[in-house]
Amino acid sequence: MLRYSRSGHVTRNFLTNSIPTKRLNWEFYAVIKGKCAPTHSLGEKPQLRERTLWIMSPATNYGWTGEDAGWERILFHFAFIPDTLRSQIDPNGRLEVPLSDEDVETLSRIEKEVQEHMLNPNQLSNLIFHRALINLSLIALRDRPMETIATLEDVAYQRVEDAIGWYLENMRKAPTIETVASAVNISTSHLRRHFHQIKHCSPNDYFQRLRMERACKLLNQTTDTLDEIARRCGFPNSSDFCRAFKRTFATTPHTWRRRITAKNPFINGIKISNFDPGDRRQDGHFTSKSSPRRQRQAGTKN
Question: How far apart are CA 300 and CA 302, in angstroms?
Answer without folding.
Answer: 6
